[in-house]
Amino acid sequence: MTEKSVKENPAIKKWKGKRGALIMALHEMQDQMGYVPRESAMELSVAMDIPLAQIYEVLTFYNYFKLEAPGRAVISICTGTACYLKGAPDLVKEFSKELNLEVGNSSPDGLFHLQCVRCVGCCGLAPVVVINGKTYGKLKPTEIKHIIAEWREKFAQEDAAHAN
C-alpha cells in the first residue's frame, strides 16, 4: 500500500475526513470493484484512521458487502413475498443445480455469482431474476439452462473480442 494508491482511490478521497462516512466509503468501494478487497480496506483504515478490525466488523455484519470478487454475472434471485410465492425457491434450486453453486458463492471459473435478494421492485413480473441489470420476469425453472447458456455465450464473445 502506498501513499499514492490511497490518494488515487476515489472512495477514500471523497469520504476521508468526513465523520460517520465509513459505510458510505465501503459502499462506494464495492460499487467500483464489485467487492471490498483487503488491500482497499487497509488503505481505508490508514486514510480514515479507523482500525482495520472496525472496518471488518462492518464488512462482516452487513451481508451486502462482499469480501471476494463476485463472478462476472451476478445472478440476483428475488425472494420477496410475491416472487417467493410464485416460485423463487424453485429458481434458487435450479440455478444451484445447473451451476453446481450454493447461494452466496461464485463459480470456480469466475463467471457466475449466485445471490438471493429481498425485493427488486418488479412484483408484477414475479418470480424475477436480475443478472447484471438485465431483468428476467415470470421465470420458470425450465428456462434457466437457456439463460446460463446465453451468459456463457456473451462472455465467450467478449473474451474473443478482447483477444483480437
Description of the molecule:
The chain is α+β, with helices and mostly antiparallel strands and 164 residues long. The chain folds into two domains: 3-61, no CATH class; 73-163, Glutaredoxin (3-Layer(aba) Sandwich). The chain is built from eight helices and four strands; from the N terminus they run H-H-H-H-H-E-H-H-E-E-E-H. The chain has a four-stranded mixed sheet with strand order 2-1-3-4, with helices on one face. Strand 3 and strand 4 form a beta hairpin. Helix 3 runs antiparallel to helix 4 (38-48). It is globular. 23% of the residues are buried. Residues 1-6 have low confidence and may be disordered.
Summarize the helices and strands and which ones pair or pack.
Layout: H1 3-8, H2 10-15, H3 22-33, H4 38-48, H5 52-61, E1 73-78, H6 81-85, H7 88-99, E2 112-117, E3 129-131, E4 134-136, H8 144-163
Parallel strand pairs: 1-2
Antiparallel strand pairs: 1-3, 3-4
Helix pairs in contact: 3-4
Provide keyphrases for this structure.
2 domains, 164 residues, 4 strands, Glutaredoxin, disordered N terminus, alpha+beta, 8 helices
Structure in a nutshell:
The chain is built from 8 helices and 4 strands; from the N terminus they run H-H-H-H-H-E-H-H-E-E-E-H. It has helices at residues 3-8, 10-15, 22-33, 38-48, 52-61, 81-85, 88-99, 144-163; strands at 73-78, 112-117, 129-131, 134-136. Strands 2-1-3-4 form a 4-stranded mixed β-sheet, covered by helices on one side.
In the CATH classification, which architecture of the largest domain applies? 3-Layer(aba) Sandwich
* Helix and strand run: HHHHHEHHEEEH
- The number of helical runs is 8
User: Uncertain regions: pLDDT < 50 for 5+ in a row?
Assistant: 1-6
Relevant CATH superfamily of the largest domain: Glutaredoxin
Stated plainly, the CATH topology of the largest domain is called Glutaredoxin
User: Major beta sheet, specifics?
Assistant: 4 strands, mixed
Strands, count: 4
The helical percent reads: 40-55%
Alpha carbon gyration radius: 18 Å
Shape annotation? globular
Q: Order of strands side by side in the largest beta sheet?
A: 2-1-3-4
Indicate the structural class: alpha+beta
pLDDT averaged residue by residue: 90
What is the count of structural domains?
Answer: 2
